Amino acid sequence: MEKVNIAIVTSDTLSYLGVKKLLEDIPAVTVCHIADAAGLIDGNADRFDVIVADAAVCMSHLQFFLPRRSKTLVISDKPLVQPAFDFINRTDSAQQLSEKLIDYIDKLRTTASPQSELSQREIEVLTLVASGKINKEIADALQISINTVLTHRKNISAKLGIKSVSGLSVYAMMNGYLK
Amino acid sequence: MIVTKDTKLHDVVISEPAIIAVLSRFDITLGIGDNTVRRICDERGINSSFFVATLNAFIDDEYSGNDIFLAHKKESEAFLHRTGNYYLRFLIPNVEQHFNLLIRRNTAVNSNLELMRNFFGEVKTDILAALSCESQFTPCNAVEEKLDDLISMFVIHLSGNYDVNLCQAVLFAIIGLKKDINLYNRICKSLE
């Protein structure tokens, strides 16, 4: 993974600015502020490599965050009840926080998912392609542009080594995406 | 390797064994002796320039001798015709037989193999459709893409229980067919 896209999910502006400041020293990182978790849950999550979220946000949307725990870093002031999540302690020193963030992102870069793994959005596009939908229908169904559909299709074919629609249908059936 | 008229044909076969399938369409079978391409072509009445271009095009995807196919249109069309028959009689049944054996010998159910065999059935239909346009020798472009997809399914995505040796046999048969169809398509395109 070259560039790391990070979402900071908090309604606390000071927390957002603090984390953003700490991330400035890390190369190839882009940061996006999401004040309301609903904005993340409504289909935006898969464009982020890391989600830094308030403990309160995380706990109140546990069903959303648990499947994404491998890329979620929680801002807290004590170890979480849910030990599955990595966290940064808001009471730590600036240096400790910075080191923790650098370590977390380095670990993510070295253990990033293999290129062949499809994102959730790519699986949705694949399923629609495999069920015979044309690009316009896919764009309408997922509320994205046709260009975005084309980009997803290109990425899917590159990851799977499968280009034809019927080949993608077979792959979708082999993997249970299509009955 | 680049084949010339002075190359010993057995060197070509040893370097590129899959080329035996192409030679058989010139009625050249194993036990070819120690002769050069020129001598073998002279003895059998084969146009040596066309023969050399065909072998080089099979060996090297980037071979740029396509103008030779157009210059020898009659030989090219005869070769394409023989090639179509060869697919129907040998290469396609070869893949099917191996696929059927693979699925029959599988002790556990592997629905992925069934799906892949069905996909090959679709490829076969496409080949038959292209070959039925006999008068104009239609390239099987979609077939090449689908065979590449099938190869990726075996190489990258295969899972579950299967007989490894038979699986490899199916894969080799598909790769051989794909390479041959690449040659068929290039000669077709040279004649357009």
Relevant terms:
A: 179 residues; alpha/beta; Rossmann fold; Arc Repressor Mutant, subunit A; 2 domains; five-stranded parallel β-sheet; 9 helices; B: 192 residues; mainly alpha; Four Helix Bundle (Hemerythrin (Met), subunit A); 0% strand; globular
Rg measurement of chain B, Å: 18 Å
CATH C-level class of the largest domain in chain A is Alpha Beta
CATH-defined fold name of the largest domain in chain A: Rossmann fold
Judging from the principal axes of the Cα atoms, what is the shape of chain A?
elongated
Radius of gyration of chain A: 18 Å
Secondary structure tally: strands of chain A? 5
Question: Helix amount of chain B, in percent?
Answer: over 70%
| Span of the ends, CA to CA of chain A | 33 Å
Descriptive account of the structure:
The complex is a heterodimer of chains A (179) and B (192). Chain A is α/β, with parallel strands linked by helices. Helices cover 49% and strands 15% of the residues of chain A. Chain A has helices spanning 13-23, 37-41, 55-60, 62-65, 94-110, 120-130, 135-142, 146-160, 165-174, and strands spanning 4-9, 29-34, 50-54, 72-76, 86-89. In chain A, helix 1 (13-23) links the parallel strand 1 and strand 2 (29-34). In chain A, helix 6 packs across helix 9 (165-174). The relative contact order of chain A is 0.11. Chain B has two domains: 9-64; 73-191, Up-down Bundle (Four Helix Bundle (Hemerythrin (Met), subunit A)), CATH 1.20.120. Helix content of chain B is 71%, strand content 0%. The chains are: A alpha/beta (179), B mainly alpha (192). The interface between A and B is medium-sized, with 12 and 19 residues.
